[in-house]
Each structure stands twice: as C-alpha cells, then as structure tokens.
Amino acid sequence: MAKIRVENLTKIFGRVPHKAMELLAKGWSKQQILQETGCTFGVNNVSFEVKTGEIFVIMGLSGSGKSTIIRLLNRLIEPTAGKILIDGEDIVQMNGEKLREVRRKKLGMVFQRFALFPHRTVCENVEYGLEVQGIAKAERRQKAIDALSLVDLSGWEDRYPDQLSGGMQQRVGLARALASNPDVLLMDEAFSALDPLIRKDMQDELLELQEKMQKTIIFITHDLDEALKIGDRIALIKDGAIVQIGTPEEIMTNPANEYVEKFVEGVDRSKVLTAGHVMKRAETITLDKGPRVALQMMRDRGVSSLYVVDKKKSLLGVITADNVVEATKRGDQTLEQIMETTIPSVAPETLLHQMFDLVAFSQVPIAVIGEQKRLLGVVVRGAVLSGLAGKVNDVAATTAEDGQVEVHG
Amino acid sequence: MGNLLPKLPLAQWVEAFVDYLDATFGFVFDGITAAIGAIVNSFAFILALFPSWLLIILIALLAWRRKNVGLAIFTFIGLFLIDNLGYWTNTMETLSLVLTAALISVVIGVPMGIWCSRKDIVQNIVTPCLDFMQTMPAFVYLIPSIFFFGLGKVPGVIASVIFAMPPTIRLTNLAIRQVPAELVEAADAFGSTPLQKLWKVQLPIAKTTMMAGINQSIMLALSMVVIASMIGAKGLGADVYRAVTQIKIGVGFEAGIAIVVLAIVLDRLTQNKKKRNK
Fold first, then answer.
1. Backbone phi, then psi, for A194, in 5-degree steps?
2. Which residue segments constitute the domains of chain A, with CATH numbers given?
3. Segment A115-160, tens digit of pLDDT
4. pTM of this prediction?
5. B278 vs A: CB within 8 A
6. H helical segments located in B178-202
7. Which of A128, A160, A162 sits opposite B190 (nearest CB)?
8. Which residues of chain B have a CB within 8 Å of the CB of A113?
9. Which domains are seen in chain B, by residue range?
10. Which of A176, B136, B186, B190 is the most buried (most CB within 10 A)?
C-alpha cells in the first residue's frame, strides 16, 4: 500500500497565489502568469506515491523545487493546492494540533546543514522530539541513548554539537529523527554537506540501517550517483515538475526525454548497469555431441568457445577451440572428457564495476547464470564497453528479466 | 512660506492632550506612581541592609565569579573609593533607581521584542516609535513625567525607562529573527508548539544578543537617572547637578568619578559571561 500519496501538489510563491492558480487553470503559461501577477511556481502539479519501506529519491538541480517539495510534505511550507495523504489522511486539511501530532509521531526530518541546536548536548538534541511530546525525562533519555547507539555514537551523549565532526553531527541529526520512531524519514540533502568519503560511508550506513528498520524514506539530492545508489525509485524534478519516475535502471536505460538523457550522461554506468543489461546470447552445445560437431559449430558461428549445457539449460562447463583440437588429435570421443568445469560466472544482477577484473583476465566469455545454474547469457569484453558507452542490449535485458533466454545449439 | 501659513499650534495640542490624559487617567498614574515607588524603595531597602564594607566585598566576589580577578580588584578599589569620598548613600540611591528602571525595561521590553519578532506589522509600527524615543532629547521626557507623576524618583524612573527600553526591544527582536531558519524549521518539523519553539530553541539561542541589549538598557538607564536628578530624583546626579549650578569643580569631579565607577561595574557585570570551555 502507498504510505504517502501526493496528488496535484502545487506551491506558488508570491502575493496572490490563488489568482495565479486561476490563470493557470485558464491555460496561461508560467511566463504570462509571472508577468501578470509576479507569482512564480515553486512546485507545479506534482503527483507521486511512496510505498511503505521504500527509499524514494527526489532528485534535481538546485532551484528545481526539490527542497520545496519535501517541506510541503510536512507543511513547513504551506501548499497552495493539492493533497498529501499520509496513511490515507490528508495533512493539507489538518489543523495545527493534528499536524503537530503527525509531525511528532510519523515524520522525522534530517536537514542538509544538520540543524542541531547548538545550546543542547548531543543527547538533548536527540531527545528534542520526545521532549515536545511531553515524555518523561528518564524515558526519553533512554530512547535517545538507544537512537545514538543505532548510529554508532554511544559515549558522545554529553558533548555539544560543535565538538563533533560534520559526519558525526549528521549522525546526531539522523538519531534525532529516529528517536521518536517515526514511520517516515524526510531527508533533505542529508549528506550533501559532507566530504565525499564520509558521504559514501553515510550512504552505506543508511542502507544498512534501512535493512533493519524498513522506514519509508524520502530522500532529496542533487547528486545522481547518490540517487542511483540508495534509491529504490527516483523522481527527477525540473522546474518544479516531475520529469520521470522510475527505478535507477529504468532511468538509466530508458530516459524519458533529452533532459534526463543529458542528466544521466555523466553517470558512472558501471555502478548501475548489471550483467543482465549487457549480456549476449550464449553459444551452447549439449553433452551428447562430439568434439567434431563442436569444432564445426565454432567455425560456423565464428566463436572460439562453447558453453556446455544439459537439456534443462543448466550450465555444465565450457569448451574452447584449443581443447577440441587437442581432443580430436588424441581421439577423445566425448565432450565430458575435455570440458572445463571451473567457469567464470556471475549472477544477472551483478554490477559491471564488480566484474571488471573477471572480464579483463578471463580467456572465455563470462557466464551469466540464474537459479539452478541456468545459463542466461554471456558477457564479453566488447559488451561491457558498449554498455559503458550507453548502448544497452535491450533485448538481453528484458529477456533476462523474463528468464526466457533462447539458447541455441 | 512660513508667513503664508500660520504656525501650527503643536505645543498647545500636546498640552491639551496631556491635560486630557491627566484628567481621565489620573488614577492609573497614581497606581503606577505607587508601584514604581515601592520597587525603588525595596531595592533601596535591600541595599541598605548591608553595611558598605560587606556589600563592597560581595559585589567584588560576584565580579570574580562572573569575570576575573582583575575586575574584582577594580570593583573593590572603586567602590571603596566611593565609600571613602562619602558618596556611598547617594550611589546606592542611584543604583536602586537604575535597577528599577532596568527591571521595568526588561519586563516590558523583552515581551515587546518577542512580539515584534513574530509579526512584521508590529515591528513596522514599533521601530519608528523606538527611533522617536531614542532621538528625542532625553530632557523632554522629564516634563510630561513631572506632570503625570509629580517630582521625585518616580518620574525619574519613568523617563529612564522610556529612554533605556529601546535597545532591549530592538536587540530581542533582532536576536530572535537571527536564529538560523533551519533551526526554527527543525523545531517545527519535530512538532513543537509555538511556545515550545520560543522557550526551547529561539530564546536560548537568542540569549547572547538579548543580553547585549539588556546591558545597553542598563547603561542608558544610568545615564538618564543622573539627568533625572534635575526633577528631584536623588542620588549621584543631584551631587553633579549641584556642583554644576554652584560651579564646584571638586565636588563635580568626585561625584563624576562615583558615576563612572558604578557604570563600569554595572557594565562589566551584565556583559556576557565567558564562553563555555571546550
């Protein structure tokens, strides 16, 4: 079920936002509305759903309206129009009291520049959300200590924020958001102010925590690599509107338009594309054939190796042209005698950057195998390179997902 | 130009307005007079409880606790000098006037400042009033003060409050507005009520700047209390005033020294504390 559903969310900045809404409904362009009313669109008619337990990344360049969107979700900024349903309740319609209740119990927020209270100790910072709920001192201190141990900051309870490094401060920020055990975490460029190395650690740690906690996380970032790394789904924002929503793979392999294409151009594809995306059809042979048949098949297809599979397409081994030639000289009659059974192989979801070594030094193409050693395809050096260059073998990708690779031979 | 248009009877209008106030709200002014008189007298009473030497030691100790040994020594010598020159009683009188004026300035000024920080419209109305209060020659306040509150301490205190309050309001307003927006957002995001946000986040962070405003108010109150001796507020100002009218340079200098010592001690004691050690 959708944890959060956002429908036609709009935020107009200016003195007469509702007039601007009317003009928009009449079909005026944004430029015309700006000239007529002086109003600008922060967020324009955005709709999306976030599923329970999902990391939903909203990404865009600065000024694209992503920070406005996340602030609309807990009404730090008042929406001009639209609905925000959290567990089916529209928070746009809530009065002050109910909104506070939702903020206290359901929404934790982590800020780009940490936003820790400088006059409070680390522990008092983490306690803050519980304190405003009126929870007793001893209980909230215990919960704060638990939250701090979750982010590896045990023992730092009584320091002040300015005594901590940036990375540690943001852990405090995370602990503060987690302390009241909310279902939803709103993370506004939470790692953008950190050094690259620490940022990477924090991303890994967030993913690790998420394994345990299964929160619904909405994560804002301007860094596509970060979005691709941690996002289950990504929404790309431009000029306050959603350009494309999809999984990292969908966005990489299937950009909705030129804007997205340009965006994903500079990305390190090896960290997004998988063996399944670049694999080719495998040249295979079954065990009942003899070496001479194998040699003929290699000649016909212009390859120097064949994968040996059984009737159920399970991978048994590999034979190379050299083996076969030697075998025919020796007079071996079956393939079983000459095939090598130690085969370089990967799963289809293996990322390219994890298999560079394997591809570079292997004499034969890398086998991509699925469940029960089913041979799905092979990865050759050329395919890896063309994948990195942006040419993804769509057929292979889709068929791999369907588990319907056609194997000849 | 001036001849074409008859002079506006501004002076008459102001007098008429003041007459009206006095006739209509006389009982209010009487109440205020009684209240302020009581506050001044209680300060004077408390200060008079201690013999001068004991009070000197106590204040010096306080200076040591809040600041350092240097200020403690200065405080001790300075106050001892005042006592020695025979200005102790008048100094204590001035001090109780200053404390009263400062107390009222803070009690009214801080909430005013908070209100200004929350509503732009309030700030836009209050700011020109504060400009007016600060730039109008201080003596002018003495006249309506006398009119409503008679001669003596109370009009002195009232005039001092009017003169001294603006920095507290201004800096409280400024201090709260300067609390970083993201900290305010954080307070909101975790579901604080407006009052919780004020008490737990805004005021503690604004404290340093607010204290600077209160310190300014105390210093201004001291300067005004001295002037207020012209309308019968006793204390060191009266000594200075007498010295000026009788051209007694020596007495004027002695009383002046006493005021300076009191000013420095008050200023240093109410300045911000040393920063927290890391």
1. -100, 160
2. 2-106+182-267 (3.40.50.300), 275-402 (3.10.580.10)
3. 999 999 999 999 999 999 999 999 999 999 999 999 999 999 999 9
4. 0.75
5. yes
6. 181-189, 194-197
7. A128
8. 182
9. 11-49+86-270 (1.10.3720.10)
10. A176
